[in-house]
Design goal:
heterotrimer; A alpha+beta (262); B mainly alpha (420); C mainly alpha (158); A: 262 residues; alpha+beta; Alpha-Beta Plaits; three-stranded mixed sheet; three-stranded antiparallel sheet; elongated; C: 158 residues; mainly alpha; 2 domains; 2 strands; 37% helix; 4% strand
């Protein structure tokens, strides 16, 4: 038989337990959750545009990015890189990215890894081009979805950032990125990736790679501003994105993206 | 060198940041948690379904599962760049990530196993603690023993028939809940891989189920081997001490210690074969589907599965690790020796399956036009190659055996008295 | 007597309470669901400010250099090298002129070869840039020994 005292005890313990858990995990406010998702109050949504016709493979962008964002220069990781594609008459496609294009492309030979190179005769080339790549700051970032502790997240303006004080270094986000833009910082040992030079764009400057590019192959803009030159290109000209089939909704748009680009 | 660079050999066209980040410890992690889940399921087969022949091995399996439980998070602790921050999984869990949910499921599972053990051994705790409680002068060892066993009783000293019956019921319920939780546990490990859409080899809804089946297979196999090993060792030491009147397990006649019971082994191996068949069927189904649908990734996957990793997958995992033990177990008149060989091969096969999934998934580049070769660090020459290499992996594999030896002192596995 | 069966459950609940208690001290107060929701916005809010406060190294703005270095600026602006940013060769400005007092300059052959190694790639802007075979054209000598980077045409030859 349950006495009044017992009932009171059970009720007290029950509510205390539930309240503590709900408060502790802060998931108990559906109204707040929904409101934040539905109303996108942010006035800025950063978006990037790459013109692969203009890129000459000089690699100034990669060098500038490494210096600006303190990625050790000799480390074989980089927040942004440039790929080279060469298609020959027999339909074969060769691609390489020596040190991510950090020192430019100063040889005709395609790097195959392990010190091996492929010689391609000039007459055999049907088309060849350079493709700069960086973090796509996806609208549905699969890397953020898999972070177990909330160390990586999407800021209200669309940029995906990593909290270096919170990252546990599990590497799940690195495995989950379809574009291979993430890596472990050689010094800080946390997950690292391009963040659209968040410290620069918030001061009204352009990203380091956009600033460095002499040929205007890279541009950054605000998708929410219809008068932004980048937005105008995206809305009015033919553009494409990388690996659309993954559903991540990448926000780096390309002009002249060939089907051979991996 | 950046993390992963030292054991990665890149070929042809890969992205600059691609390395084998998830190495040997990430292979060990699902392997160890699989052993945990498998051992528990084996124990539950007796407690829930009352399969009498499994009674002896059931208790053994439960204690071993508990020992494995402590070894299971170790691969993660060694893999993380910030092991101490790993507790943040409990502080700020992001439940959209399989790893965060896994942390909670694993803890819940640990609670279930610990509780079940408590109910199973409660009588033993009380029987040890009670006389020590009454005893006036205790030696240091007796003091330690008193503290340990007294706290283990959780303040409950009632070992009447009625309370023991309630214990039995609790065990049955816990074992019953535990089976789906164990499936959840290893399903989640499979989900960690199966949900990564970026990886062409891992992305399949079959991954959680394949992991569960092979986990149970490995758990059963490990329990069988350890059970045989311990029973035979007991028999051996008892035979040597035939003239002694006291041995550690209490006085037993040679007849009582018969060594590993053959009918227990035969019964258990039937379940092992059943789960082995399920595991193999699912894996072959996955392979056949991939080849048939031949999506964009199939070209590079085919070159990895049928080319570069052919020996690892078809010879080591399927032939030596699955087919040979399958035949060994099916030949009628199973002997202890054949069971041991079969179990060892099965464990090897399950380990190779984890290896081929984790490392195989990183053997090809995201470009589908390049490869990465994993150079296993065998002889460590720095902290990283130690903790993420063969030495670290072996250490973790040995750990549950050491723990089990310690636990056997608190949870004696071989009691003659019928407690439950 | 109360049912002893629930003892382990009480222990488990006790452990959970301890974890939740520790959480109050360990988790930063501004950790929570951000504007992007729980799936994409679960984070410590002040991390955004940490990144905003990161030090700027490059200026990449012509206005930064042209007032003090007007001579070189005017020269290069009249040449095809006008598109190259000063800091591409001279390195990041940082707090120049206070720190560093002087900027270095990359005079290596590799620096020029970035654009001027001839790569005859149809459909790419690279094929429009004239180049030299570095193994045949004065190998081992710095390009700037003869060419003026601010006035790269033949008129600027040393």
């Amino acid at each position: 038989m349950i006495t009044r005292r017992n009932l009171l005890e059970i009720a007290l313990k029950g509510t205390a337990g539930l309240a503590l858990s709900a408060a502790a995990f802060e998931l108990a406010d559906p109204k707040k959750l929904f409101a934040d998702i539905m109303s996108d109050k942010a006035k800025v949504r950063w978006v990037f545009l790459v013109d692969t016709y203009k890129c000459v493979g000089c690699g100034f962008c990669v060098k500038a990015c490494k210096t600006e964002n303190e990625i050790p220069y000799d480390a074989n990781v980089t927040r942004t890189w440039v790929e080279r594609y060469v298609q020959t008459k027999d339909g074969k496609v060769f691609a390489d990215t020596p040190k991510g294009g950090r020192d430019g492309f100063i040889t005709e030979k395609i790097a195959l890894g392990s010190g091996q190179f492929k010689d391609i005769k000039k007459e055999d080339i049907t088309k060849a081009f350079f493709v700069p790549k960086l973090c796509n700051q996806c609208e549905n970032p699969s890397c953020v979805q898999v972070c177990p502790v909330g160390a990586t997240y999407q800021a209200p303006d669309g940029v995906v950032l990593v909290d270096r004080t919170w990252c546990i270094g599990c590497g799940y986000c690195i495995m989950a990125c379809p574009y291979g833009v993430r890596f472990f910082h050689p010094k800080y040992h946390t997950a690292e990736k391009c963040n659209f030079c968040y410290h620069r764009i918030n001061k009204g400057m352009k990203t380091a790679c956009v600033g460095a590019c002499p040929f205007g192959a890279r541009m950054i803009g605000n998708l929410k501003n219809p008068d932004d030159p980048v937005t105008k290109v995206i809305m009015n000209e033919r553009v494409s994105v990388l690996k659309e089939e993954f559903g991540t909704k990448p926000q780096v748009y390309y002009i002249g993206l060939d089907k051979e680009v991996k | 060198m950046v993390h992963g660079e030292i054991w990665t050999l890149k070929e042809l066209f890969t992205y600059p940041n691609e390395y084998i980040y998830w190495s040997l410890q990430i292979v060990m992690y699902p392997f160890m948690t699989g052993l945990v889940a498998g051992a528990f399921v084996l124990s539950s087969l007796y407690h829930v379904f009352g399969i009498k022949e499994l009674k002896e091995i059931a208790r053994f399996a439960l204690v071993f599962s508990f020992a494995l439980l402590f070894a299971a998070p170790m691969p993660i602790v060694l893999h993380l760049q910030f092991p101490l921050r790993g507790t943040m999984i409990f502080m700020t869990p992001h439940f959209t990530s399989a790893i965060a949910a896994f942390g909670i499921v694993f803890s819940a599972y640990g609670a279930i196993v610990a509780s079940e053990l408590w109910f199973l051994y409660r009588r033993h705790f009380v029987e040890v603690a009670q006389p020590l409680k009454d005893k006036q002068d205790k030696s240091l060892l007796e003091w330690l023993k008193f503290i340990v066993f007294c706290s283990l009783t959780l303040g409950v000293y009632d070992i009447s028939e009625e309370s023991l019956k309630r214990d039995e019921k609790a065990i049955k319920i816990l074992a019953g809940i535990g089976i789906p939780v164990a499936c959840f546990l290893h399903g989640y490990a499979g989900f960690i891989f199966g949900s990564v859409k970026a990886n062409a080899l891992w992305m399949t809804p079959l991954m959680p189920v394949i992991f569960i089946m092979s986990a149970i297979v490995s758990g059963i196999a490990l329990c069988m081997i350890t059970y045989i090993g311990v029973m035979e060792a007991n028999k051996f030491s008892a035979a040597r001490q035939a003239t002694n009147t006291y041995s550690r397990t209490g006085f037993r006649s040679k007849e009582e210690i018969g060594g590993a019971e053959i009918h227990v082994i035969r019964m258990t191996s039937k379940y092992l074969v059943f789960f082995l068949i399920s595991a193999i069927s699912l894996e072959l189904l996955d392979l056949i589907f991939r080849g048939y649908t031949a999506v964009k990734s199939w070209d590079v996957l085919r070159s990895v599965i049928y080319g570069r990793d052919f020996v690892s997958i078809f010879i080591l995992q399927y032939a030596i690790g699955n087919l040979v033990p399958f035949i060994l177990f099916l030949i009628p008149g199973l002997t202890i020796r054949r069971a041991v060989i079969g179990c060892l091969l099965v464990l090897f096969g399950v380990f190779m399956m984890r290896y081929n999934v984790v490392i195989g998934g990183q053997a090809f580049s995201l470009t589908f036009a390049g490869y990465m070769h994993y150079l296993i660090p065998v002889i460590p020459h720095n902290w990283e190659t130690f903790k993420e290499g063969v030495v670290g992996a072996l250490g973790i594999f040995i750990m549950p055996f050491v723990l089990f030896w310690i636990f056997m002192k608190i949870f004696p596995v071989f009691e003659i008295k019928e407690s439950h | 007597m109360k049912n002893h069966v629930f003892r382990p459950l009480i222990v488990v609940i006790g452990l959970v309470m301890i974890v939740l208690f520790i959480r109050l001290f360990v988790v930063p107060k501004d950790f929570g669901v951000g504007e992007r929701g729980y799936m994409y916005g679960w984070h410590r809010k002040s991390s955004e400010d940490d990144w905003k406060a990161f030090k700027v190294k490059y200026q990449f703005s012509p206005d930064y250099c042209k007032d003090c270095h007007s001579a070189n600026y005017d020269t290069i602006m009249k040449s095809p090298h006008a598109v190259i940013k000063c800091e591409n060769c001279h390195g990041p400005a940082l707090d120049h002129p206070s720190d560093p007092l002087k900027l270095s300059v990359d005079k290596s052959r590799e620096q020029c070869l970035r654009c001027h190694f001839p790569l005859p790639y149809p459909t790419s802007g690279r094929s429009a840039i004239r180049g030299v075979d570095p193994e045949k054209h004065n190998p081992g000598v710095e390009c700037v020994m003869c060419h003026n980077p601010h006035k790269p045409g033949l008129g600027g030859m040393k």
